[in-house]
Amino acid sequence: MIIVYILCAMLLLAALWLLTMRTKRKKEDFFGLAKFHYAHRGLHGNGIPENSLAAFSLAVNHGFGAELDVHLTKDHRLVVIHDKTLKRTTGAEGMVEDATLKELKSLNLEGTQEKIPLLQEVLPLFEGKAPLIIEIKAVKGNHAELTRRVCELLVNYPKLKFCIESFDPRVLRWLKKHRPNIIRGQLSCDFVRRKNGLPLVLAVLLTNLSLNFWTVPHFIAYRFEDRSKLALRICRKIWGVQEFSWTIKSKADAKTALADGAPIIFEHIQEDLCTIN
């Protein structure tokens, strides 16, 4: 009898675990977004900085969509840059969130004449041409204001196809509550193995997509090298969610992801992509 109780308890826990990973079921063509390859931070390299207007223009000219990153400045402006600190891309000290737009515009990207762009400078490049994957980079608890301001700006570009993603589940929760029609995606990877400084409990929850019940994402953008994780497989097979793969850096990986139905976020392989459907 005890064994029966144990088995019932195990089945109940398994069912609850499955429920924590609940997602939206994908549409047949995922709103048209699955038809594109996405240049990670634009088509950068060879003297063209990441997340620059030059990189985004080049992506559009090659027929690619793009993935980009959005931060909120000290004076509440939306800028496109990946890191929360300025050192790697500009050589300057400090954090994006602690700087004004004027201060950021005085900096050059990667030793070029390119500047950190405003989100409103990037969106017109893609409107009516190619879609965007917009990653919300929430810092210092600004997830609600940052997400709200991005959504308010996007209203001005009715012909732009886009989706919004974030590692921060609070961003997706805000979208679910306030902008449920916007396509939202949970970014994730194996946080436990990669030891990125998250508390262990949170790392386990995010790795295993166990906050999906709270955010109910339309897609999961999972690190390609970690995509064998059981939680991701369950989300795809049982819940029928759309997967995106990041960051693809070889033709072989691109073929693998695409053959499995996962649109790709890539960098440095655009020439090879011309031969991949």
Key features of this structure:
9 strands; globular; alpha/beta; 277 residues; 38% helix; 13 helices; single chain; eight-stranded parallel barrel
Low-confidence stretches: none
What integer value in Å does the Rg equal?
A: 19 Å
Distance between the termini: 56 Å
Give the mean pLDDT.
93
| Spatial sequence of strands, sheet with the most strands | 1-2-4-5-6-7-8-9
The geometry reads as globular
Strands, total number: 9
Number of helices: 13
Structural category: alpha/beta
SSE string, helix = H, strand = E?
A: HEHEEHHHEHEHEHHHEHEHEH
Q: Give the strand content.
A: 15-25%
Helix content: 25-40%
Instruction: Give a short account of the largest sheet.
Output: 8 strands, parallel, barrel
